[in-house]
Amino acid sequence: MDTTEYRLEGDGIELRSLPKVSLHDHLDGGLRPQSLIELAEEIDLDVPATDEAGLAEWFSTQSNSGSLVEYLKTFELTTAVMQTREGLTRVARESVQDLAADGVIYGELRWAPEQHLTRGLSLDEAVEAVQEGIEQGIDDARHQGRGIRIGQLVTAMRHADRGLEIAELAVRHRDRGVVGFDIAGAEAGFLPSRHRTAFDYLAGQFLPVTVHAGEADGLDSIRSALVDGRALRLGHGVRLAEDLVIERQDDENTYVSLGQLAQWVRDREIALETSPSSNLQTGAIAAWGDELVDHPFDLLYQLGFRVTVNTDNRLQSGTSLTRELALLSDAFGYDLDDLEAFQLNAAAAAFLPLDDREELAELIEDGFDEA
Fold it and tell me: What is the pLDDT of residues 17-32, one digit of tens each?
């Protein structure tokens, strides 16, 4: 877990203490290196390094390839130790503990149950194991004086053919921890339309959907997420900036025109689940540059899109939500009001009932007022 102290330049405010909302956080991308080593030993699995620092470095090196396909290969190791009830429960519990320690008061953990069945678990047993760990982590946080609420986002792998089965799984557990549905995996070549049947079913069941789109593929993927997937949020969505045209700039202003797709996303306040460090690692922003200051995040924010800040995979990116906020603040000169806006955006987009979202927004406002 990232324990570095980050302070907002000028104000001196310690960012970890601020209340936060995390919408895009992969369970199999948030393991503690030491826990991974111990879990691997239990199942006689070889790991690239047997010390915590060495394994963390291996993940960092593997994840900085500039390719989503290469980045995703690191998950072969993390999912390998998450094939038993004990492994899933431990990882979920520690993930919640780490989020709470980072100031997160509401989070959604996404993961693909179909990838965790090699040691005999059923889909339902896998979801139950994760929920058990989540509840343990919430209890742990409460005993430490931290309040946190966590929901599961059940994910189907977009290259596989189990979309409807996983959608039905999500609905079965909607009153036992599951708050929504997602598809993930290699994006290019696997449009959300492949899972139209699953999305039709979910729409009929009124279960909210977020879709990975606009990370490793462009506008067609985003369009399919919205039209075929009825997505209420876009996982990453940064390549929506391809539908923006900078008409001209002067010393004070940038004049931008929006294509129909971008206009739709902005006007309907469809949240973008951006993950700055991950977007650099996977090459999602390669069209604009290879440094954080090149990220279209700020342009989207200034244009009024509902941008949110997320970690994606805390292990692979060696990051935390606090660190992501600090990086953005350094890159774009954001102040406390900006950071609060990002959290309120996330609260408004959370897969929670309206009353709960309003309560969450109040907690954020109170926490930032006290900062």
Answer: 999 999 999 999 999 9
Helices 85-101 + 123-143 axis angle, to 10: 40
> How far apart, in whole angstroms, are the C-alpha atoms of residue 371 and residue 43?
46
Q: What is the largest CA-CA distance in the chain?
A: 62
Cα 164 to Cα 114: distance, rounded to the nearest angstrom: 12
pTM exceeds 0.85 for this model:
yes
Strand partners, 252: none
Q: How far apart are CA 104 and CA 4, in angstroms?
A: 16
Pick the closest to residue 109 from 270, 312, 267 (CA basis). 312
Helical (H) or strand (E) element with 269: none
Whose CA is closest to 163, among 126, 109, 123?
A: 123
Catalytic residue among 108, 128, 187, 215: 215
Task: Yes or no: say if 138 and 98 are a contact pair by the CB < 8 Å rule.
Answer: no
Number of alpha helices (DSSP H) and beta strands (DSSP E) in the chain: 16, 10
The CATH number of domain 15-365 is 3.20.20.140: yes
Q: What is the C-alpha separation between 79 and 61, in angstroms, rounded?
A: 19
Q: What is the pLDDT of residues 111-144, one digit of tens each?
A: 999 999 999 999 999 999 999 999 999 999 999 9
* 70 given a catalytic annotation: no
Count other C-beta atoms under 10 Å from residue 335's C-beta.
13
Amino acid at 317: S
- What is the SS3 assignment for 40? helix
Domain segments of the chain: what residues? 15-365
3-state secondary structure of 23: strand
Give φ, ψ of 22 to 5 degrees: -115, 115
CA–CA separation, 45 and 263 (whole Å):
49
* b/e code 160-197 from CB counts within 10 Å (16+ = b): bebbbebbbbbbebbeebbbbbbbbbebeebbbebbbe
